[in-house]
């Protein structure tokens, strides 16, 4: 992010340097040229006075001697041109012949003096020429022309430009050098807050932002964020405790009620009475299973998310889950097919682990699908990589998120679910019409949706061709494979069939 800020400021700094630098260059060029022009104009005025005296007296020896000495000292030839075009003083080289100098000479014979000249730039090769009339107005008797070389002037301009550029670039460089630690100081709490927000979004409600770094405004923002997370954590904890306490408190009275109804069996002689008693016992059993499922769901919801640095590779997940999948499909008389994953592929793990999610999906397929085979496969969603970059701006935690996402699919070839049933399947306690008499609570898929979405993933149910159901669990990629982790002996199951 610091680099992006510096890059964003570069056009402004370039425009600033260009604006100030160009203005400075123009001022230096004009000032240096004008200074030399004024010096040469002063010389030309003095030579015009000498030329006027020489023309009046008819003796040009003094004029010739001084102009020759001037040329020898400064390398600037001087011509004195009379009204008839003859040379009062000839430096031994022809008078410059170009349109500009001719116009200046004509204006000088008309009594006009030039008070400025064109700017001499470092790339200008033409000499600086000064034209001064001898006499004034209608009494002009000659014209003095000085041709001054510009080598020294151009060198002086270059030196001043170099000095000005150094004086301009040094503070700009100091600004850029100071901007890097300054933006680091300002953006460090922003990056930390972004990282902590991602952790909280992933279910880690114990994550807190540091409040001792950065400007006071950002420290206040971090404190407010921590207070917000504290409030959310307390609210969720109260809800979990309430559900767990309610289930615990109701479980014992319900067990006593079931026992009391069962104890009435010896006194139920009529068929209708016995049927009503059995129905009451069955309802009590189902209600007990529901309470057990609520307790299990509360336990899963309270699980801390698995950190990316501790996430297993998908191969380790499959290795840990395969014994359970084989047992579940074997008990149901189904064939199991597993596509071995890439050993380096790591997906972000939901609370309770990806093994528990896949175990529940395989159990559902084995118990409810009326299928002959179950397939567990995987894929990497390369098409999501650019969208993932845009969503995160590649400014997330370095070395944490990969470029894209991975998908694990559990597919069966059974009777499947209709489109409306697939839409309703994520609801809590929902069960398909043809599964109403099958043991279970209808919480499994709902909790899978919740724990997967808590870490930025999605769960999608699709129809399998030609028959059956395909469940796709899509999770963000973790770019850095973790160190070798021993597979668990048994992951925590999602609530499906309570014990007892």
From TrEMBL:
The chain crosses the membrane at residues 161-182. Keywords: Kinase, Membrane, Phosphoprotein, Transferase, Transmembrane, Transmembrane helix, Two-component regulatory system. It is an enzyme of class 2 (transferase). Residues 184-237 form the HAMP domain. The keyword Iron does not apply. Residues 483-500 have a biased composition (Pro residues). Its EC number is 2.7.13.3. Residues 382-393, 412-421 have a biased composition (Basic and acidic residues). It is found in: Cell membrane. GO terms for cellular component: plasma membrane. CDD domains: HAMP, HATPase, HisKA. PROSITE patterns: HAMP (PS50885), HIS_KIN (PS50109). It comes from the Bacteria. One of its GO terms (molecular function) is phosphorelay sensor kinase activity. It holds the Pfam family HisKA. Residues 245-479 form the Histidine kinase domain. Its main location: membrane. The keyword Protein biosynthesis does not apply. It catalyses: ATP + protein L-histidine = ADP + protein N-phospho-L-histidine. Residues 382-421, 479-500 are annotated as: Disordered. InterPro entries: HAMP_dom, HATPase_C_sf, HATPase_dom, His_kinase_dom, HisK_dim/P_dom, HisK_dim/P_sf, Sig_transdc_His_kin-like_C, TCS_sensor_his_kinase. PANTHER family: SENSOR HISTIDINE KINASE TRCS, SENSOR HISTIDINE KINASE YKOH. This is histidine kinase.
């Amino acid at each position: 992010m610091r680099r992006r800020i510096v890059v964003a400021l570069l056009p402004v700094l370039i425009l600033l340097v260009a604006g100030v630098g160009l203005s400075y260059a123009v001022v230096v060029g004009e000032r240096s040229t004008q200074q030399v022009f004024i010096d040469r104009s002063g010389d030309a005025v003095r030579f015009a006075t000498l030329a006027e005296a020489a023309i009046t007296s008819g003796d040009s020896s003094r004029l010739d001697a001084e102009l020759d000495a001037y040329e020898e000292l400064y390398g600037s030839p001087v011509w004195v041109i009379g009204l008839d075009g003859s040379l009062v003083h000839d430096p031994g080289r022809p008078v410059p012949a170009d349109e500009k100098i001719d116009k200046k000479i004509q204006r000088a014979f008309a009594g006009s003096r030039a008070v400025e000249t064109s700017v001499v730039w470092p790339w200008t090769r033409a000499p600086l020429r000064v034209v001064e009339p001898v006499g004034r107005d209608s009494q002009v008797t000659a014209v003095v022309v000085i041709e001054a070389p510009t080598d020294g002037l151009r060198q002086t301009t270059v030196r001043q430009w170099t000095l000005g550029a150094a004086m301009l670039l040094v503070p700009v460089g100091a600004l850029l050098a100071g901007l890097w630690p300054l933006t680091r100081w300002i953006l460090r709490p922003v990056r930390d807050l972004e990282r902590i927000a991602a952790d909280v979004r992933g279910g880690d409600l114990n994550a807190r932002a540091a409040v001792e770094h950065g400007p006071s405004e950002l420290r206040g923002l971090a404190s407010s964020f921590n207070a917000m997370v504290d409030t959310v954590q307390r609210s969720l904890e109260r809800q979990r405790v309430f559900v767990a306490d309610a289930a615990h408190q109701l479980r014992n009275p319900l067990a006593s009620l079931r026992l009391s109804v069962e104890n009435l069996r010896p006194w139920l002689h009529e068929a209708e009475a016995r049927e009503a008693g059995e129905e009451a016992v069955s309802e009590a059993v189902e209600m007990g299973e529901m309470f057990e499922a609520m307790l299990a769901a509360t336990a899963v919801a309270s699980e801390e998310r698995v950190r990316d640095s501790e996430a297993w590779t998908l191969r380790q997940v499959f290795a840990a889950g395969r014994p359970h999948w084989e047992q579940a499909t074997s008990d149901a008389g189904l064939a199991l097919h597993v596509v071995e994953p890439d050993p380096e592929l790591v997906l972000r793990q939901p609370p309770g682990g990806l093994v528990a999610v896949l175990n529940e999906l395989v159990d559902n397929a084995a118990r409810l699908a009326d299928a002959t085979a179950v397939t567990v496969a995987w894929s990497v969603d390369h098409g999501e990589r650019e969208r993932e970059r845009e969503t995160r701006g590649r400014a997330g935690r370095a070395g944490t998120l990969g470029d894209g996402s991975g998908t694990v699919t559990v597919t069966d070839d059974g009777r499947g679910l209709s489109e409306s049933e697939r839409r309703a399947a994520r609801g809590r306690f929902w069960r398909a019409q043809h599964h109403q008499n099958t043991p279970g609570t209808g919480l499994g898929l709902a909790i899978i949706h919740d724990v997967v979405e808590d870490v930025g993933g999605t769960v999608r149910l699709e129809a399998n061709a030609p028959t059956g159901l395909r469940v796709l669990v899509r999770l963000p990629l973790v770019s850095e494979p973790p160190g070798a982790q021993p597979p668990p002996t048994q992951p925590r199951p999602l609530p499906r069939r309570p014990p007892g």
